[in-house]
């Protein structure tokens, strides 16, 4: 009886799958034609992708969650875009880092990812044309800003064209089972800091904590050394065949990293955008307040204000400001004009869609 019921549902799934496949290929044909119309120009259109994903979420009636539906369409668009032209995304390697996970979350699995030895090298890969876009971490909810990415954006000709928000889960990983015999734990310094309390409570005091260039490098070392463990995420655990001795060991349960996508293009408005700027203030009293005033007086909301030592003079600072809206919106455009009159230096790093998934 239940076999009969199962058979009926499976036949329905087979019919639906055939229909979905036919429709997916019709969609892919349209994307291929769009690629021809673009005629060798920029194929990746972040503003359109954000609109497609936001629309899917708003159309969704379940039982699939909005998130699950958007992720499926993320992969559909990734495959369609690859028919126009396959993309290469540079990231801070080696394979298995959270930066790679962010690149795949944003571009889907049809894009190729190119591991680079440093964030500088990943920027250079795009500037020299050996990769199309770079995905670089810019801030973590517990550890704050990633200074190197901020510094590189000041001088790089690349524009920000997207953002990726990734929940970070750390695990204690080892080749084999049990914590007995662990003498050292490798991880990136930020991850060691993010799991500090857990390590204090759960590992003997004598276990050495060694910071290395990336979590994936930590996992690689732990896969080679029997008395070593690593703190890293799922991708690194899978890449190096390690056992998860303890899962989600980050002290802060909402641990999230924000990444930026940068490339050579300017991005059009999607309807729900963010604009990132770097500005410097003249060194005089009230200068800082004068940077904020043009935003509030033009009704522009600020979502980030971060200071960073300028590399040109001692005790001089530059300020990284994120505002809601696109440079083409009148309020943002007026605020930027006014900012230009009071700031010593203003650079628009990019206007781009806010993360949808
Ligand atoms: O609309 C476009 O410009 C397309 O190329 C189609 C499409 C899609 O599959 O929906 C694919 C890639 C772009 O980044 C945006 C959207």
UniProtKB/TrEMBL annotation:
Chief location: cytoplasm
Role: Catalyzes the Claisen rearrangement of chorismate to prephenate and the decarboxylation/dehydration of prephenate to phenylpyruvate.
Subcellular location: Cytoplasm
Name used for this protein in its record: Bifunctional chorismate mutase/prephenate dehydratase
Enzyme Commission code(s) on record: 4.2.1.51, 5.4.99.5
A Pfam family hit: CM_2
Classification via InterPro entries: ACT-like_dom_sf, ACT_dom, Chor_mutase/pphenate_deHydtase, Chorismate_II_sf, CM_dom_sf, CM_II_prokaryot, G/b/e-P-prot_chorismate_mutase, Preph_deHydtase
Record's catalysed reaction(s): chorismate = prephenate; prephenate + H(+) = 3-phenylpyruvate + CO2 + H2O
UniProt key word Lipoprotein: no
Gene: pheA
Phylogenetic lineage: Bacteria, Pseudomonadati, Pseudomonadota, Betaproteobacteria, Neisseriales
Source domain of life: Bacteria
NCBIfam families recorded: CM_P2, PRK11898.1
Species of the source: Silvimonas iriomotensis
């Amino acid at each position: 009886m239940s076999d009969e019921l199962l058979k009926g549902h499976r036949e329905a799934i087979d019919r639906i799958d055939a229909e979905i496949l036919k429709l997916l290929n019709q969609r892919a044909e349209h994307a291929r034609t769009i690629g021809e119309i673009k005629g060798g120009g920029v194929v990746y259109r972040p503003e359109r992708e954000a609109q497609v994903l936001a629309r899917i979420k708003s159309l969704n009636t379940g039982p699939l969650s909005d998130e699950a539906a958007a992720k499926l369409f993320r992969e559909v668009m990734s495959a369609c875009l690859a028919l126009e032209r396959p993309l290469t995304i540079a990231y801070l390697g080696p394979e298995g880092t959270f930066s790679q996970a962010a690149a795949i979350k944003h571009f889907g699995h049809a894009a190729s990812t190119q591991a680079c030895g440093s964030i500088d090298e990943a920027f250079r890969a795009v500037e020299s044309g050996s990769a199309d876009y770079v995905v670089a971490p810019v801030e973590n909810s517990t550890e704050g800003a990633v200074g190197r990415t901020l510094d590189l954006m000041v001088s790089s000709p690349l524009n920000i064209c997207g953002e990726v928000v990734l929940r970070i889960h750390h695990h204690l990983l080892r080749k084999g089972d049990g914590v007995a015999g662990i003498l050292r734990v490798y991880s990136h310094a930020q991850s060691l800091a993010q799991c500090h309390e857990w390590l204090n409570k759960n590992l003997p005091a004598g276990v050495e904590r060694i910071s290395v260039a990336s979590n994936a490098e930590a996992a690689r070392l732990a896969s080679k050394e029997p008395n070593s463990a690593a703190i890293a995420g799922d991708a690194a655990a899978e890449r190096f065949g390690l056992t998860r001795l303890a899962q989600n060991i980050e002290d802060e349960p909402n641990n999230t990293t924000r990444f930026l996508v940068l490339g050579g293009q300017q991005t059009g408005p999607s309807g729900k955008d963010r604009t990132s700027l770097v500005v410097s203030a003249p060194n005089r009293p009230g200068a800082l307040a004068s940077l904020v005033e043009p935003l509030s007086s033009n009704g522009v909301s600020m979502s980030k204000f971060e200071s960073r030592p300028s590399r040109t003079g001692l005790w001089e600072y530059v300020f990284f400001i994120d505002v809601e809206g696109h440079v083409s919106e009148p309020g943002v455009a007026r605020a930027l004009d006014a900012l230009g009159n009071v700031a010593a230096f203003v650079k628009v790093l990019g206007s781009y869609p806010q993360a949808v998934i």
